[in-house]
């Protein structure tokens, strides 16, 4: 619904800024509340989101909040223990409270390392693999044939709610927009 959701965009590497700016503009045009936070403010923002998730666990508020991470693994350098625990809380308990994370990690191993304590790959609702070998994705997707290899125009998706095993999807034409 227009204007119903709140978004937190976290472009944690410089290369992600143009994409995040475009997304912010579009979401704002639809009337959504948008906060953009870089690497320097990410720890404070994720700790606030974790506090919101903990507050919502015992309440009725389920208004949608979406955390969009660009290069989520870049946060490792600034999170420290409290920030890492906060991010795990958001990943693990957030969906049941209306707080959802859409994230891009630069390698499956970096995401797996985040999920080791108090979270697990089972906490991921959906994994979409682009330009990643099957052996690397196998740590996040059970039953993935290690022979999977990336190909142009294709992605591998595993949605725990819909699939019993990973499926190949074809991306017909990637959408790319020039940012002024």
Task: Briefly characterize the structure.
This protein is an alpha/beta fold. The chain is built from five helices and seven strands, in the order βαβαβαβαβαββ. The protein has helices spanning 17-29, 39-57, 76-97, 108-114, 134-137; strands spanning 6-11, 33-36, 65-70, 99-104, 126-129, 154-159, 167-170.
Describe the structure.
- This protein has 180 residues and is an alpha/beta fold.
- 36% of the residues lie in helices and 20% in strands.
- The chain contains 5 helices and 7 strands, in the order E-H-E-H-E-H-E-H-E-H-E-E.
- The protein has helices at residues 17-29, 39-57, 76-97, 108-114, 134-137, and strands at 6-11, 33-36, 65-70, 99-104, 126-129, 154-159, 167-170.
- It has a 4-stranded parallel sheet, with helices on both faces. Strands 5-6-7 form a 3-stranded antiparallel sheet, with no helix packed on it.
- The protein is globular and about 40 Å long.
Mean pLDDT: 84
Fraction in helix? 25-40%
Number of helices: 5
Q: Main β-sheet: number of strands, strand sense, barrel status?
A: 4 strands, parallel
Note the run of SSEs as H and E.
Answer: EHEHEHEHEHEE
> Which geometry do the CA atoms define?
globular
Low-confidence parts, pLDDT < 50 over ≥5 residues? none
Beta-strand content estimate: 15-25%
The number of E-state strands comes to: 7
Strands in their spatial order, largest beta sheet: 2-1-3-4
Keywords:
alpha/beta, four-stranded parallel sheet, 5 helices, 36% helix
Helix and strand arrangement:
Layout: E1 6-11, H1 17-29, E2 33-36, H2 39-57, E3 65-70, H3 76-97, E4 99-104, H4 108-114, E5 126-129, H5 134-137, E6 154-159, E7 167-170
Parallel strand pairs: 1-2, 1-3, 3-4
Antiparallel strand pairs: 5-6, 6-7
């Amino acid at each position: 619904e227009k204007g119903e959701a709140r978004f937190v965009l976290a472009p944690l590497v410089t290369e992600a800024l143009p994409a995040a700016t475009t997304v912010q503009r579009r979401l704002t045009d639809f009337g959504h509340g948008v906060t953009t936070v870089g690497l320097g403010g990410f720890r404070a923002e994720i700790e606030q989101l974790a506090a919101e998730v903990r507050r919502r666990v015992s309440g009725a508020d389920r208004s949608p909040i979406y955390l969009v991470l660009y290069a989520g693994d870049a946060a490792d350098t600034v999170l420290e223990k409290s920030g890492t625990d906060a991010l795990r809380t958001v990943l693990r308990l957030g969906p049941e409270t209306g707080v959802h994370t859409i994230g891009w990690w630069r390698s499956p191993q970096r995401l797996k390392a985040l999920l080791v304590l108090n979270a697990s790959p089972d906490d991921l609702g959906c994994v979409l693999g682009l330009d990643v070998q099957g052996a690397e994705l196998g740590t996040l997707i059970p039953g993935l044939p290690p022979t999977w290899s990336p190909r142009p125009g294709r992605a591998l998706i595993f949605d725990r709610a819909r699939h019993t095993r990973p499926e190949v999807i074809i991306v017909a034409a990637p959408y790319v927009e020039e940012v002024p």
